[in-house]
Amino acid sequence: MEQKFEEFKDEKDPLDILEWFTGDESKNSILILEDFHPFLTNENFGIIRYIREICRNDSILNKTLIIQTPFNLYVKEFEKEIPILEIELPKYETIEAILNSVTLDLHYDMKPDSEDVREIVSASKGLSIMEAEWTYRKIIAQKNRLTKFEIPLIVKEKEQIIKKSGVLEYFHPQGNFKEVGGMENLKEWLDKRGKAFTKDAKDFGLVSPKGVMLLGIPGCGKSLISKTISNEWELPLLKLDLGSVFGSLVGESEARMREALTLSEAISPSILWIDEIEKGLSGISNGGDGGTSAKVFGTLLTWMQEKKNEVFVIATANNISALPPELLRKGRFDEIFFVDLPSSNEREEIFKIHIEKKQRDINNFNLKILSENSKGFSGAEIEEAVNEALFIAYDDNGREVNTDDIVKALSDTFPLSRTMSDTVKDLRNWAKVRARFASSGRCQASCRECKPNCVNPPLNPKSLRIF
């Protein structure tokens, strides 16, 4: 048997290998075809046909064929004959064993069950076995130690690995709720849900929150608050780019989506952020992509409904009419919030945040006047007005910026709420009966802020559009 293997191991033609495997000399054997995926294409249909014949052979020969691929390969011809076994990313116990093995091999003294071990292993979730081992060896070689203070290096390596997927992007925690003006209702809701990830909350009977949908006007802080949740909850934040999910090969798009969702679960508890989700699902309604968008969307919906691990999904959207109704029903998200234009008090708060970010004394500015002159402005437009005021002041012999400079910048800006007033009204009418407002104290029928061109009119049932 040993001599026969020596003769066979030099065989390079895949069809000759399969023919050898079907011969009598390979009885009671296991054939592993590692990285065999380049041969499983339409151009090599003869090989696919031969493998299907092998699967139908009499099992008395006790032969097992294993095809290993580095990714989930979809071959339609194998649907009925070959089961698919996906190897999951290593769990906590496996990563801990890898860490112990590396430290033992490198003669690095590390106490088992120490705080350093727990934090390092938790930070390594999402890495494969080889990636974790390589990362630990690299850090010990560079730093001559491996403690919780090296966790940023582990996160940096993990960030690079996640980027290689081309679908997910790792975001470092940044900012906090204090840096986001307004949206008190949303902040309060998030603060309560963030406590559900603790052990005490689980012992109390709380279930982990599924996610939140943020709908609203562009530039009002949906993306900003999505980034701050990670820092507030001390959880890793992954951004899913739906546009990069779609591939040219049959089944590739669904496979990429499953890979991204699997990775987000592997590093759970985590936060998965899908920004402007309606743009990634634009192909569902017209069917111009042969149904690929619908399949990807179906994969996402099923996962959101049935996921077992703690992955909190944040989805943001500007265009409600482009969202499939299935996405908005209860069970996909815990709550749907509408992010409106900031009120008078909220605009003052936003001006204060951005002026202080420029390291200016807020007492030198009249926030009431700035708020009065920025009716209908979004948070992003207010930020740009502050930036423009600095240019105005610097161009005027480098003098210090003042309230008048910001008012001048505001007067030169035509806000989105006026250019898209009909769209804004439709968004508000839709939200008043289908979502919670992220901010408290919205103006209603007695609006005094924006008449005669009110940007937040009372609900008119006759003008309500059903999307």
Structural write-up:
Helix content is 46%, strand content 10%. It folds into 4 domains: 2-78, no CATH class; 92-164, no CATH class; 171-339, Rossmann fold (3-Layer(aba) Sandwich), CATH 3.40.50.300; 344-417, Orthogonal Bundle (Helicase, Ruva Protein, domain 3), CATH 1.10.8. With 467 residues, the protein is α/β, with parallel strands linked by helices. It has helices at 2-8, 14-22, 45-56, 92-105, 115-123, 129-143, 151-164, 184-194, 199-204, 222-233, 252-266, 277-280, 283-286, 292-306, 325-328, 344-357, 367-372, 379-395, 403-411, 416-419, 421-434; strands at residues 29-34, 63-68, 168-171, 211-216, 237-240, 270-274, 311-317, 335-339, 436-437. Residues 1-8 and 443-467 have low confidence and may be disordered. The strands form 2 sheets. Strands 3-5-6-7-4-8-9 form a 7-stranded mixed β-sheet, sandwiched between helices. A two-stranded parallel sheet has the order 1-2. Strand 1 (29-34), helix 3 (45-56) and strand 2 form a beta-alpha-beta unit.
